Amino acid sequence: MESNRLISSNKNYLQILNAKTIVIKIGSSILIDPKKNILKNKWLNSLLDEIAFLKKNGKNIIIVSSGSIALGKSVLNLSSNKLKLDESQASAAIGQIKLAQAYDLILKKYNIYTAQILLTSDDSQNRRRYLNIRSTFKSLLKMGVIPIVNENDTVATEEIKFGDNDRLAAQVALITEANLLILLSDIDGLYDKDPNINPDAKHLALIKEVTRKMLNMASQTTSENSKGGMVTKLEAAKIAMNGGCEMIIANGLKKFPISNFIFEAGKYTRFIPKSDVKTLRKQWILSIKTKGKLKIDKGAIKALMNHKSLLPAGVIESFGNFERGDAVEIISKNNEKIGQGLSGYSSFDVLQIKGCKTNEIEKKLGHPGRVAMIHTDDLVLI
Ligand code: GLU
Hints:
By secondary structure, the protein is α/β, with parallel strands linked by helices. It has helices at 5-12, 14-18, 28-31, 41-56, 68-76, 85-108, 121-125, 127-142, 165-175, 212-217, 230-242, 257-263, 277-287, 298-305, 347-353, 361-365; strands at 21-26, 32-33, 38-39, 60-65, 114-119, 146-151, 180-185, 190-191, 203-204, 206-207, 246-251, 268-271, 292-296, 315-319, 327-331, 337-342, 379-381. It is built from 16 helices and 17 strands. A hairpin with a 4-residue loop joins strand 2 (32-33) and strand 3. Glutamic acid binds at residues 27-28, 66-70, 92, 150-151, 153, 164-165, 226-228. Glutamic acid is lined by residues 27-28, 66-70, 92, 150-151, 153, 164-165, 226-228.
């Protein structure tokens, strides 16, 4: 199988070998035949063969795929490139079924299940929804499923739109704490000038900071179906790098796009962040103003020191009024601050379940609830 090439290419490209969680964004311009507005099936089969290979080798993979509007357009016989909002939304509703089905059918051959996740930008800005999305992603990845993500175009209006799947993919990379985001597109990466009009434009292989000059220079794409040009890709890079995630822009036009870009050195651009995801996230958690305190017992302190989550059983008392997702201080019996974290429960719920074993939570709350009071990823010890 062609994907076996990835084994040897891993030696060339260690980031893929090291990354545990990878988000792969697929642009309409490489997935959809621009003349017929239909899926390029052979190409998709080749990509999913590579993805199945990465999955079998222990990677968590999340796919962010465009293409619903283009596919819906062909069903509705709409030819215009500038659809009205309601036409885009109707096309997306029709095309999304076909899009998700295509991924599902192919990945089934590898015994891999897929799940559809449709998001709008305000989903990730609202803290409760953000936590819900994150825990759904976590569960799916734990179950070995590949989430297929797209913007929820049928409900998105101008104000709530991500506007393009490049930025959506960067948000998803941060939500899932991915180590690597790959944008597969019809361009080789970033140049110092627009390569379409400047034959002497130099390809840039490594970027450590997205500057204003780069953003000014970036020109809009001329592709018919995709919304994002180089500008949105650079904005995605800024989001990803600020969140500690490496990003790659690579040309995905040919079959077996992942092994291709790894092999053809110089045909992609890497955007490398200054610090890694974990460090940045911990800094962020410590910087949030706390809304309450959780007093915990010795057993729980020991568990936290062993990188375990804080369970309701270890909580002795709760102070203050807070919602699920708010930051709280974690204190010992002697009122010493031990750490800080994002609470998985509101203060109201904590009062019901503090000291409870996991199997007693449902009875107390009247619904199943979550196992952790504070998940280990949401917790920083001082
Ligand atoms: N969500 C759009 C679609 O599926 C694509 C947006 C984009 O290409 O960035 O058609």
